[in-house]
Structure formats: structure tokens, C-alpha cells
Amino acid sequence: MVAGDRIVLWILFCLVGAYCAHHWYWFIRSIVFYSRNGFDFSEDFGPEMYWSERGGDDDCVLIKPKEKFLIAGPVFVVATSVMLTFIVLGLTGII
User: What is the extent of the structural domain holding 58?
Assistant: First the structure.
């Protein structure tokens, strides 16, 4: 592996690792919050997440708390963890 490739992998490791840790942090905090709350999804918790932005700032579609907890949170946690796993495997020379 060329030295330049390792630098790119280290930069990706830092960026994706921080993003992965951020999503794990908020997902674990939301599990604790909603379990203490009796899984009442009428109260939103955590950072705002959007399904899409259509045209401008006024047309943003927010994710509802239940969808954020059951769909978006796990998807982001799994996706960033898989990306980080492949980056670590690349850094160790396995792939």
C-alpha cells in the first residue's frame, strides 16, 4: 500500500469515526430516554433529522420521533459502523 493511501485512510478514519461515535452516542441516549419515558414518542429527543429538503428552508420534512428511533437511528449506526470497519480493515492491511 502506498503511503498516500494510508494518509487518506487515516483521514477517513478520523472523519467517519467521529460521525460513527456521534450517531452511537445519540442512539444510546435515545434508548435510555425513551425507556425511562415508557416509549412515549410524543416528546422528541436528540438532534433534528430530516427526510429531505424540498426546494428551500421552509419545505424541510422532519423525521418524527418514532421514525427517528426505529428507522433513522439504527440505519445511521449500522451504516457508519460498517464504513468504519472497512476503513480499519484497510488500515490493518487485511483488505
Answer: 3-40+47-92
